């Protein structure tokens, strides 16, 4: 069988082109070795159709002489199952991650233990009443009682206002509207992500329609989907038809379809998420569609909740807001109990031991209201008339009854003393922040492990790419050498055989 010399030349040319393309792809991988979300690519090389050399005794079917190789397509190395696991781990991690900053800010509000903290001021406040009991007519001691009461009230109001500011930084509510805060910012970002997914999906579909492989666009879409999973549970259906990728995509968020594009211009769904406030039940709801919403305040009400794990940062933020609200309630309970206990003590004193009718000029009835208002309305403090004239409005002879409140178990504080209850609150605040930090650390470790496993499959390993680079370089040089050899053979045939 005779085959022309030109076939070897074309085969070698194809070899040069294949190895050049493979080197280009290797260079792309090395350039993106540190790019977040980048998936390793590789050239899928296959042989080109063989050439037949028909003779009198052979058929004309191909399969006798190879014609070289070609790059069939550029494959994106990806494991969808590992991607799903990473998104799930990202959701679990997000639930705790965004709580840390909120709860740590709350912990900083109390600044305990500290020499000038609220806990110390509670002790000093009751101690001042004991000092007044020892010196009932001393105007200086009375002034100290008022000043310490004012300082204590100011500290408690400051703590409460700081907690309130933290709560509003998560969600500022007016009527049925969630106006601003971290929750609103996250929902806005979610809607932006869905819009970007829609734009990228259209680009992916156009590339597939052109018969090409949109690897970088698919990476971009996966990065967006992974970011979306931080905010809540994400389920993906890539919409492939009979195993053939076409770029179609359906995204479910908390089990509800929020994006769907099947490749048809007529069927595109993009739901804008929204937040609303249920005034009656005091709950924040996340609207997923015109008819579907979920209760962020009570995650146990979310359908099929168990399969979603920790639900992501939206529920994590709302959970931290609920914790802050409870801390505000507990702090206000101390203020109200302090106000009411002193008032009740004075009322009891005046009933069981009424004052004499001016037996001595310095003896006056104790004013029943030492503290007034509460932390919720922001008016908690020492009554103005007492602050202006403590000498007239405080009966030092009865200071003992108020001083004794220091060691009494207060029913309104779950039968704890004021100091013990405040210490319990500070401990709970600290434990809440530490627990969130510990859980976030655990979930981050799990996510990192799963992400590393995924990256071991789809990530770029520079040592491996350098090995491939040398392999493709060697193939390129060999093919080029083959062209040179064939060129020398042709030169002999064309230019020298007739000499």
From TrEMBL:
Query: Quick one: a GO biological-process term for this protein?
Result: bacterial-type flagellum assembly
Domain Flagellar basal-body/hook protein C-terminal spans what residues?
457-495
* Keyword terms, alphabetized: Bacterial flagellum, Cell projection, Cilium, Flagellum, Secreted
Q: Which GO terms describe its molecular function?
A: structural molecule activity
Any one Pfam family here would be Flg_bbr_C
Regions that span the bilayer: none
All copies of the Flagellar hook-associated protein FlgK helical domain together span: 104-342
- Domain Flagellar basal body rod protein N-terminal, chain residue ranges per copy: 9-38
Q: Does the keyword Cytoplasm apply?
A: no
Q: InterPro entries this protein is in?
A: Flag_bb_rod_N (IPR001444), Flg_bb/hook_C_dom (IPR010930), FlgK (IPR002371), FlgK_helical (IPR053927)
Gene Ontology CC, one term: extracellular region
Give the protein family. Belongs to the flagella basal body rod proteins family.
Q: Which PANTHER family match?
A: FLAGELLAR HOOK-ASSOCIATED PROTEIN 1 (PTHR30033:SF1)
Name of the molecule in the record:
Flagellar hook-associated protein 1
